[in-house]
Amino acid sequence: MPKVQINGIDLFYDIKGTGEPLLLIAGFLCDHAYWSLIMPSLVSQYQVIRLDNRGMGRSSAPESPYSLKQMAGDVATLLDHIGINQVHLAGHSMGSQIAQELVLAHPEKVKSLMLLSSLAKGDALFNSIIETWGDLPNNVDLKLYEKVVLPWIFTDAFYSIPGMIEGLIEFAIRYPFPPATHSLYHHSQAILGSDTTNLLQQIHCPTLVLVGKQDILTPLKFSQQLAQGIPNAELVVIERGGHGFLIESPDAVVSAMLNFLGKLKPAYSNFGF
């Protein structure tokens, strides 16, 4: 799995499958592996590109502050490096904020946009949670940190599955590429510093806004704001699942993504794409 030196860092990325390029951007506390449960369905139809955002996984974690625009710039430079001109683009949570910044800065690079568990700007409750998540690693170990974060990510039904949460916490503790404390702080500040509310009307590519009905971190109202602000955006609500529906309800999520992408194929074929 390769790395490339861009914008002053080593950026890790992974490419699997063949077909039209589909780029996936993970969110806070997550690296490229967060998409693993839906990868088999995606790589059967698309060339899937994943990366570790700066500060996560196997990418560099500089001490200096990060911004979402900067991380979108990392993605744009990566696409130039691997020689891909245009992609279908999906981002989850913070990754969806990066995706918004990418399509706003480089609309020519994005065929379609999928915003999962997303937002244009957080409200007071969301901002308080994210600020806490950025500060907390200085005061607790990773196990306790996960115990604090996960109730905002998964539903009661998921918590009720015997051993599920304990298994996820154990996986996080044993994961060989844990995030640095300063990276979580910088990512939290990047999230808090982002606001695309007044720019949404500039997004003109086909757009899917996808949210779990039981998402308490980025609730339905955030996705409704996006769908109302982005011209002709389609809003789909996953009935079972919260913010972490990529893990809790992967079949429903990938079905919605592939259905959206499938509806675009006839339009491309008419123009010889």
Structure commentary:
Helix 4 runs antiparallel to helix 8 (181-192) and helix 5 (142-149) crosses helix 7. With 273 residues, the chain is an alpha/beta fold. Mean pLDDT is 96; it is low at 267-273. The chain is globular. It contains eleven helices and eight strands. The two termini are 29 Å apart. Helices cover 42% and strands 17% of the residues. Residues 204-262 form the Peptidase S33 tripeptidyl aminopeptidase-like C-terminal domain. Residues 21-135 form the AB hydrolase-1 domain.
List the main descriptive attributes of the protein structure presented here.
single chain; alpha/beta; disordered C terminus; 8 strands; 273 residues; Rossmann fold; 8-stranded mixed beta sheet; globular
The CATH architecture can be named as: 3-Layer(aba) Sandwich
Oligomerization: single chain
**SSE series:** EEEHEHEHEHHHHHEHEHH
**Largest sheet, spatial ordering of strands:** 1-2-4-3-5-6-7-8
Q: What is the 3D shape?
A: globular
Residue ranges: pLDDT <50 for 5 or more in a row?
Answer: 267-273
The CATH topology name reads: Rossmann fold
Pfam family, one: Abhydrolase_1
Organism: Nostoc edaphicum CCNP1411
InterPro entries: AB_hydrolase, AB_hydrolase_1, AB_hydrolase_fold, Epox_hydrolase-like, Pept_S33_TAP-like_C
Protein name: Alpha/beta hydrolase
